[in-house]
Amino acid sequence: MAKTLSIITLTLNNLEYTKKYIESLYRFTSDFELIIVDNASTDGTVDYLESLRLEKDNVKVIYNEGNKGFSKGNNQGIEIAEGEYIGFLNNDILLYPNWFEKIKEVFDKENAGFVSPRHINPNYNLTNEHTYIEYFEHFKYEKSYEKNFDECVFSCVVTKKEVLEKIGTFDENYSPAFFEDNDIKYRAILAGYGVYVVNTICFFHFGSITSVEHDDNLEQNRAYYYSKYPFAEYLSTIGDENGRLKLSTRHFQNFPLNIVYKLYLFWLKIVKRFKRLGK
């Protein structure tokens, strides 16, 4: 019998964090299947995942021979996901009680594309992995949930299979990471869906444990993103997002900003090639 929720998690080493995440996931989540895509870990993660797969009847594991990146890895998971809802969760997070139930309430009430809990990070929140639940209980928001493009983050986010069937999966040109989340959220809004953050739940994020290794791809992926969506920086998190985007698209038809970004992206490729030749 298919589970309600398919959770897709990528791993690339950092076994210590993966173990904490798995413990938190099983503590605060029910009726789910876990799909783990390993991007060629070398620190004992593969052995741990294999033991987890044998121990739990709701775990599937895909082992890649190399690092396929965030977009490709998640797309691999989507291909075998059976749930009505699909969650993309990092392996360096901790969850909050009833997190999925609160997210599902938003889907029940709104035409939602992606829904995320509030993000708690020890780099700018005065808490840690042992106190974040108590810490967040003191947070008070005017609304239980709200539209917010920036605060809907893909370290912990849920969508529905039917949404992905309409807007498509992750663009694998973003490699290995960065801006693929903005791209797919943008497409969801263009398709008429809302992008939400839930203010009554949170998740604790240790920080960019894996993606920090790929900072050199940030600017290249940024250029590619704006070559596709030149007006994305003007996306409003309040009001008629879909209407604003359609208006921007109409204005853009006679505006050559996309050409500028495409030239910039081409220039980055040339520079990168010369750097390789110089090594």
* Overall number of domains: 1
User: What name goes with the CATH superfamily?
Assistant: Spore Coat Polysaccharide Biosynthesis Protein SpsA, Chain A
Strand order of the largest sheet: 3-2-1-4-8
Average pLDDT taken over every residue: 87
CATH topology: the name is Spore Coat Polysaccharide Biosynthesis Protein SpsA, Chain A
Q: Which geometry do the CA atoms define?
A: globular
- DSSP strand content: 15-25%
Write down the secondary-structure element order.
EHEHEHEEHEHEEHHEHHH
Radius of gyration: 19 Å
Compute the number of strand runs.
9
Q: How far apart are the termini?
A: 54 Å
Uncertain segments: 236-240, 249-255
CATH architecture: Alpha-Beta Complex
Structural class: alpha/beta
Please work out how many helical segments DSSP would assign.
Answer: 10
User: What percentage of residues falls in helices of 4 or more residues?
Assistant: 40-55%
Give a written overview of the molecule.
Helix content is 42%, strand content 20%. The chain is of the alpha/beta class. It has one domain (5-208): Spore Coat Polysaccharide Biosynthesis Protein SpsA, Chain A, CATH 3.90.550. The strands form two sheets. A five-stranded mixed beta sheet has the order 3-2-1-4-8, sandwiched between helices. The chain is globular, with a radius of gyration of 19 Å. It starts with a strand and ends with a helix.
In short:
With 279 residues, the chain is of the alpha/beta class. Helix content is 42%, strand content 20%. Helix 8 (218-228) runs antiparallel to helix 10 (257-278).
